[in-house]
């Protein structure tokens, strides 16, 4: 795999681990169009839902599996675009999403006075990272 593919997959896997739809939104935004705006709305809805008491822990088996699958799908997609191994891209994307999920969860739980405000800080990090990813850059 190329260094560019690995960097992109690690970035998207991390974003996906923090907010499952944000990685897809960043990839879609990079491509532009109506689908990108629709996926961005889904990501925004996820961020809003995360602040409610109805949403369980992201490390529970089902949400974690969803993040891993989304990370794998996006990792494979990125690898395919770069003419790299789709399987390796999927494995790297899924593994990165799982690791980022656990890391973000632990950081959020250890934050003093964990609340919806800490979720907003996490959202700001995800939005900033997604915005950087969505920009076309020669460095990738």
Q: What fraction of residues sit in β-strands?
A: under 5%
Name the structural class. Answer: mainly alpha
Q: What is the string of SSEs from the N terminus onward?
A: HHHHHH
What is the terminal separation in angstroms?
A: 13 Å
Query: Could you report the average pLDDT, rounded to the nearest whole number?
Result: 87
List unreliable stretches of 5+ residues: none
How many domains make up the 3D coordinates? Answer: 1
Number of helices: 6
Q: How does the major sheet shape up?
A: none
Number of strands: 0
User: What is the radius of gyration?
Assistant: 14 Å
Approximately how much helix is present in the residues?
over 70%
Shape: globular
Structure description:
The chain is mainly α and 140 residues long. It has one domain. Helices cover 76% and strands 0% of the residues. It has six helices and no strands. α2 packs antiparallel against α3. It is globular and about 45 Å long.
């Amino acid at each position: 795999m190329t260094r560019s593919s690995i960097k992109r997959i690690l970035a998207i896997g991390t974003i996906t681990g923090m907010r499952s739809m944000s990685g897809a939104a960043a990839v879609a935004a990079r491509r532009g169009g109506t689908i990108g705006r629709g996926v961005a709305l889904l990501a925004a809805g996820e961020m809003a839902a995360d602040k409610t008491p109805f949403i369980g822990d992201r490390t529970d088996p089902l949400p974690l599996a969803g993040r891993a699958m989304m990370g794998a799908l996006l990792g494979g997609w990125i690898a395919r675009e770069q003419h790299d191994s789709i399987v390796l891209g999927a494995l790297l994307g899924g593994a990165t999403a799982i690791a980022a999920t656990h890391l973000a969860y632990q950081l959020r739980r250890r934050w003093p006075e964990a609340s919806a405000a800490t979720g907003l800080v996490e959202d700001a990090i995800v939005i900033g990272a997604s915005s950087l990813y969505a920009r076309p850059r020669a460095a990738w």
